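Fold this sequence, please.
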Amino acid sequence: MPELPEVETVMRGLAAVLQGHRITEVEVRRHDLRFPFPKDLARRMEGRRVLSFRRRAKYMLMRLEGGESVLIHLGMSGRMVARRAGEVPARRIAPQGAASDARGHNAPPEAHEHLVIVTDHGWRVGFVDPRRFGAVDLVPTAQEDAHRLLQGLGPEPLEEAFTPAVLSAALRGKRTPIKAALLDQGVVAGLGNIYVCEALFRAGISPRRVAASVAGARAERLVPAIKAVLAESIGAGGSSLRDYVRADGEVGRFQENFAVYGREGEPCPACPGVPPCPGIRRIVQAGRSTFFCPRRQR
């Protein structure tokens, strides 16, 4: 599933194409994804100017004039494809054999493309989701955080308000492993498996450590590590694993900089060849793969 850096990257790509422009046509090609599309979705979007974008955790919010926001969640395999109507894309990555649509928004439907947005300046944005775990909804802009999918989310990890003190307060009394605690969206919003593994490695904290024991001095190391790994991944366009691509069709590059994720059995980049370092190990926590260096991370 795309994590915070991937969602942020896609959102920035959409903002570059859509912000300030008017939606002239919306085509809804099925009645639902993970849950039904809002009633009269096309009618409520057409004719509206896109005012701005906001990301909350792993959700994108496209704010329209008239006081409504389009909430978008990519799910496991969703991606947004933006290009000029009628333009043949320079690069095309289509999951599960999806056919290329190079003839503009009037072309035959692309496989797994369930929603199409066309603008007044000749751009076309399609929501492609082979597995249909994504979601689209409408919410009053003034009440975005009251939406059922956004209620109860913790602080945004890239905001200044997310501090070691805030994280420490959220972790106190928690007896779960710190890896599980950081994946709890009520503790901190938007973190996923990849970036939790990478941040814990940078902070030198074992993913098996009891979460409450991280409050205090360890949180002083962990919060900057979380912020740094997320910022670096956004700068690299996110991590392209499986279906994820940017809105312009390009892949992210941060996977080339993974220190531990997916590197089971490889030397630890922080202590290569130093006995008794056993290299990167993989364990399973709550059904998710965790990668870490047992020598560096305590």
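Residues 89-108 have pLDDT under 50 and may be disordered. The chain is about 20% helix and 20% strand.
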